[in-house]
Amino acid sequence: MDTIIFVLIFFTLLAMGTGRRWLVLTLYFVSLAATLLLFNHHATSQLDLNF
Amino acid sequence: MSNRLGFWAAHLNILVLCGVLIGAFVVQFGQGEFPCPLCILQRMAMMLCALGPAYVIMKAREGEVKTSDFATGYGIAVISAIAGASISIRQILLHIVPPDPGYGDPVLGLHLYTWALLVFVAEILAAGVNLAFARELEPRKAGFGWPSWLVLGLFGAVILANAVAVFALEGLHWTLPDDPNSYRLFDLLRG
After folding, report:
1. Confidence band, pLDDT 50/70/90 cuts, at residue B104
2. CA B70 to CA B58: how far, in whole Å?
Protein backbone atom coordinates (compact mmCIF):
# COMPACT_ATOMS: atom_id res chain seq x y z
CA MET A 1 0.00 0.00 0.00
CA ASP A 2 2.78 2.45 0.94
CA THR A 3 4.60 1.81 -2.34
CA ILE A 4 1.38 2.40 -4.30
CA ILE A 5 0.87 5.76 -2.56
CA PHE A 6 4.44 6.88 -3.41
CA VAL A 7 3.83 5.88 -7.04
CA LEU A 8 0.53 7.80 -7.01
CA ILE A 9 2.35 10.91 -5.73
CA PHE A 10 4.93 10.48 -8.49
CA PHE A 11 2.18 10.24 -11.12
CA THR A 12 0.61 13.42 -9.68
CA LEU A 13 3.94 15.18 -10.27
CA LEU A 14 4.08 13.80 -13.82
CA ALA A 15 0.47 14.89 -14.47
CA MET A 16 1.52 18.50 -13.85
CA GLY A 17 3.43 18.31 -17.13
CA THR A 18 0.15 17.78 -19.02
CA GLY A 19 -1.26 21.12 -17.79
CA ARG A 20 -4.62 19.49 -16.97
CA ARG A 21 -5.75 20.91 -13.64
CA TRP A 22 -8.55 18.35 -13.09
CA LEU A 23 -6.12 15.45 -13.61
CA VAL A 24 -3.61 16.88 -11.12
CA LEU A 25 -6.33 17.56 -8.52
CA THR A 26 -7.91 14.11 -8.98
CA LEU A 27 -4.57 12.31 -8.54
CA TYR A 28 -3.66 14.58 -5.62
CA PHE A 29 -6.90 13.93 -3.74
CA VAL A 30 -6.70 10.18 -4.42
CA SER A 31 -3.13 10.19 -2.99
CA LEU A 32 -4.24 12.24 0.02
CA ALA A 33 -7.26 10.00 0.67
CA ALA A 34 -5.08 6.87 0.43
CA THR A 35 -2.57 8.42 2.87
CA LEU A 36 -5.33 9.29 5.36
CA LEU A 37 -6.90 5.81 5.05
CA LEU A 38 -3.52 4.24 5.76
CA PHE A 39 -3.12 6.58 8.74
CA ASN A 40 -6.54 5.45 9.97
CA HIS A 41 -5.41 1.83 9.61
CA HIS A 42 -2.28 2.41 11.72
CA ALA A 43 -3.91 4.66 14.36
CA THR A 44 -5.63 1.85 16.21
CA SER A 45 -4.43 1.98 19.82
CA GLN A 46 -5.78 4.50 22.32
CA LEU A 47 -3.40 7.20 23.47
CA ASP A 48 -2.09 6.53 26.96
CA LEU A 49 -2.82 10.03 28.21
CA ASN A 50 -4.21 11.10 31.59
CA PHE A 51 -4.98 14.77 32.31
CA MET B 1 7.12 43.31 -12.55
CA SER B 2 8.04 39.63 -13.07
CA ASN B 3 7.61 38.59 -9.40
CA ARG B 4 10.59 36.29 -9.49
CA LEU B 5 10.76 36.18 -5.68
CA GLY B 6 7.58 34.05 -5.54
CA PHE B 7 8.90 31.80 -8.31
CA TRP B 8 12.20 31.11 -6.57
CA ALA B 9 10.48 30.83 -3.17
CA ALA B 10 8.53 27.86 -4.63
CA HIS B 11 11.87 26.25 -5.58
CA LEU B 12 13.26 26.88 -2.10
CA ASN B 13 10.11 25.37 -0.59
CA ILE B 14 10.65 22.12 -2.53
CA LEU B 15 14.39 22.07 -1.77
CA VAL B 16 13.77 22.40 1.98
CA LEU B 17 11.23 19.56 1.93
CA CYS B 18 13.59 17.39 -0.18
CA GLY B 19 16.42 18.20 2.27
CA VAL B 20 14.31 16.95 5.18
CA LEU B 21 13.37 13.79 3.25
CA ILE B 22 17.02 13.13 2.34
CA GLY B 23 17.89 13.70 6.02
CA ALA B 24 15.39 10.95 6.90
CA PHE B 25 17.22 8.67 4.45
CA VAL B 26 20.54 9.51 6.16
CA VAL B 27 19.05 8.42 9.50
CA GLN B 28 17.50 5.29 7.92
CA PHE B 29 20.58 4.07 6.05
CA GLY B 30 23.44 5.91 7.82
CA GLN B 31 22.35 5.02 11.36
CA GLY B 32 20.56 1.80 10.40
CA GLU B 33 17.17 2.81 11.82
CA PHE B 34 13.94 1.34 10.47
CA PRO B 35 11.21 3.92 9.84
CA CYS B 36 7.88 3.14 11.49
CA PRO B 37 4.56 3.32 9.58
CA LEU B 38 3.81 6.81 10.94
CA CYS B 39 7.29 8.01 9.84
CA ILE B 40 6.53 6.81 6.30
CA LEU B 41 3.13 8.54 6.40
CA GLN B 42 4.83 11.81 7.38
CA ARG B 43 7.20 11.43 4.42
CA MET B 44 4.16 11.01 2.16
CA ALA B 45 2.58 14.15 3.63
CA MET B 46 5.80 16.14 3.01
CA MET B 47 5.77 15.03 -0.63
CA LEU B 48 2.10 15.98 -0.91
CA CYS B 49 3.07 19.43 0.50
CA ALA B 50 5.83 19.78 -2.12
CA LEU B 51 3.30 19.07 -4.90
CA GLY B 52 1.82 22.55 -4.17
CA PRO B 53 4.88 24.66 -5.08
CA ALA B 54 5.70 22.14 -7.85
CA TYR B 55 2.30 22.96 -9.38
CA VAL B 56 3.12 26.70 -9.28
CA ILE B 57 6.50 26.09 -10.96
CA MET B 58 4.96 23.90 -13.67
CA LYS B 59 2.30 26.54 -14.35
CA ALA B 60 5.08 29.14 -14.75
CA ARG B 61 6.38 26.99 -17.63
CA GLU B 62 3.25 27.96 -19.56
CA GLY B 63 3.84 31.70 -18.94
CA GLU B 64 2.12 33.94 -16.41
CA VAL B 65 0.74 32.08 -13.37
CA LYS B 66 -2.93 32.97 -12.78
CA THR B 67 -4.06 33.77 -9.23
CA SER B 68 -6.38 30.72 -9.33
CA ASP B 69 -3.43 28.42 -10.16
CA PHE B 70 -1.26 30.07 -7.50
CA ALA B 71 -4.06 29.50 -4.96
CA THR B 72 -4.49 25.87 -6.12
CA GLY B 73 -0.78 25.21 -5.51
CA TYR B 74 -0.64 26.69 -2.04
CA GLY B 75 -4.07 25.26 -1.17
CA ILE B 76 -2.60 21.81 -1.88
CA ALA B 77 0.34 22.67 0.41
CA VAL B 78 -1.93 23.78 3.29
CA ILE B 79 -4.25 20.74 3.11
CA SER B 80 -1.26 18.37 3.00
CA ALA B 81 0.52 20.15 5.85
CA ILE B 82 -2.58 19.88 8.07
CA ALA B 83 -2.80 16.14 7.28
CA GLY B 84 0.94 15.74 8.00
CA ALA B 85 0.74 17.73 11.24
CA SER B 86 -2.12 15.45 12.41
CA ILE B 87 0.10 12.39 11.87
CA SER B 88 3.06 14.04 13.67
CA ILE B 89 0.89 15.09 16.62
CA ARG B 90 -0.47 11.53 16.90
CA GLN B 91 3.10 10.18 17.05
CA ILE B 92 4.25 12.82 19.55
CA LEU B 93 1.29 11.98 21.81
CA LEU B 94 2.06 8.24 21.53
CA HIS B 95 5.48 8.86 23.10
CA ILE B 96 4.85 11.90 25.29
CA VAL B 97 4.23 10.13 28.60
CA PRO B 98 7.42 9.50 30.63
CA PRO B 99 9.39 7.24 30.83
CA ASP B 100 8.74 6.47 27.12
CA PRO B 101 12.07 7.19 25.39
CA GLY B 102 10.38 7.96 22.05
CA TYR B 103 10.83 6.21 18.70
CA GLY B 104 14.37 6.28 17.30
CA ASP B 105 17.29 8.47 18.33
CA PRO B 106 16.74 12.22 18.73
CA VAL B 107 18.41 14.58 16.23
CA LEU B 108 19.58 17.89 17.76
CA GLY B 109 17.50 17.12 20.85
CA LEU B 110 14.21 16.43 19.09
CA HIS B 111 12.79 13.24 17.63
CA LEU B 112 12.19 13.17 13.88
CA TYR B 113 8.39 13.30 14.28
CA THR B 114 8.73 16.48 16.37
CA TRP B 115 10.91 18.01 13.64
CA ALA B 116 8.29 16.90 11.13
CA LEU B 117 5.59 18.81 13.03
CA LEU B 118 7.77 21.95 12.89
CA VAL B 119 8.21 21.42 9.13
CA PHE B 120 4.43 21.14 8.61
CA VAL B 121 3.78 24.28 10.68
CA ALA B 122 6.48 26.14 8.68
CA GLU B 123 4.83 24.92 5.46
CA ILE B 124 1.45 26.31 6.54
CA LEU B 125 3.12 29.65 7.39
CA ALA B 126 4.96 29.75 4.05
CA ALA B 127 1.75 28.99 2.14
CA GLY B 128 -0.10 31.65 4.16
CA VAL B 129 2.51 34.29 3.34
CA ASN B 130 2.41 33.35 -0.36
CA LEU B 131 -1.40 33.59 -0.42
CA ALA B 132 -1.50 36.84 1.58
CA PHE B 133 1.01 38.46 -0.80
CA ALA B 134 -0.25 36.67 -3.92
CA ARG B 135 -0.33 39.91 -5.94
CA GLU B 136 3.37 40.49 -5.25
CA LEU B 137 4.49 36.84 -5.35
CA GLU B 138 2.57 35.06 -8.12
CA PRO B 139 5.13 34.56 -10.91
CA ARG B 140 4.79 36.49 -14.16
CA LYS B 141 7.28 36.03 -16.97
CA ALA B 142 9.42 33.91 -14.62
CA GLY B 143 12.39 32.22 -16.24
CA PHE B 144 11.49 28.54 -16.18
CA GLY B 145 14.71 26.77 -17.19
CA TRP B 146 17.20 24.12 -16.14
CA PRO B 147 17.23 25.11 -12.41
CA SER B 148 13.49 24.43 -12.32
CA TRP B 149 13.93 21.07 -14.07
CA LEU B 150 16.74 20.25 -11.64
CA VAL B 151 14.59 20.95 -8.57
CA LEU B 152 11.58 19.07 -9.97
CA GLY B 153 13.88 16.20 -11.02
CA LEU B 154 15.35 16.01 -7.51
CA PHE B 155 11.82 15.92 -6.09
CA GLY B 156 10.84 13.13 -8.50
CA ALA B 157 13.99 11.16 -7.59
CA VAL B 158 13.24 11.52 -3.85
CA ILE B 159 9.69 10.17 -4.39
CA LEU B 160 10.94 7.18 -6.41
CA ALA B 161 13.75 6.45 -3.93
CA ASN B 162 11.16 6.33 -1.14
CA ALA B 163 8.95 4.02 -3.21
CA VAL B 164 11.87 1.60 -3.64
CA ALA B 165 12.95 1.85 0.02
CA VAL B 166 9.47 1.23 1.38
CA PHE B 167 8.96 -1.69 -1.03
CA ALA B 168 12.14 -3.25 0.39
CA LEU B 169 10.87 -2.58 3.92
CA GLU B 170 7.37 -3.90 3.28
CA GLY B 171 8.09 -6.77 0.89
CA LEU B 172 4.92 -8.29 -0.52
CA HIS B 173 2.81 -7.27 2.50
CA TRP B 174 0.09 -4.61 2.26
CA THR B 175 1.24 -2.62 5.28
CA LEU B 176 4.29 -2.16 7.50
CA PRO B 177 4.46 -3.75 10.97
CA ASP B 178 4.12 -1.29 13.89
CA ASP B 179 7.78 -1.72 14.82
CA PRO B 180 9.79 -2.80 11.74
CA ASN B 181 13.14 -4.50 12.43
CA SER B 182 14.15 -5.81 8.99
CA TYR B 183 13.75 -5.31 5.26
CA ARG B 184 11.04 -7.90 4.60
CA LEU B 185 11.70 -8.07 0.85
CA PHE B 186 15.28 -9.20 1.53
CA ASP B 187 14.00 -11.66 4.18
CA LEU B 188 11.67 -13.07 1.54
CA LEU B 189 14.46 -13.35 -1.04
CA ARG B 190 16.75 -15.08 1.47
CA GLY B 191 13.90 -17.53 2.13
Report:
1. confident
2. 11
Which chain B residues have a beta carbon less than 8 Å from that of A50? 97
**B185 neighbors B171 (Cβ within 8 angstroms):** yes
Of the candidates A13, A38, A47, the beta carbon closest to that of B155 is on: A13
Give the domain ranges of chain B: 2-159
Q: Look at residues B74, B72, B123, B117 and name the one whose alpha carbon lies nearest to residue B94.
A: B117
CA-CA distance, B6 to B134, in Å (whole number)? 8
Could A17 and B162 be called an inter-chain contact, meaning their C-beta atoms sit closer than 8 Å?
no
Q: What is the pLDDT of residues A4-33, one digit of tens each?
A: 999 999 999 999 999 899 999 999 999 999
Assigned CATH for B2-159 = 1.20.1550
Distance from CA of A50 to the nearest CA of B (A): 9
Rounded to two decimals, the pTM is 0.93
Q: Tell if the CB–CB gap between A16 and B58 is shorter than 8 Å.
A: yes
Q: What are phi and psi of B107, to 5 degrees?
A: -115, 120
Q: Of the candidates A2, A32, A45, which has its C-beta nearest B48's C-beta? A: A32
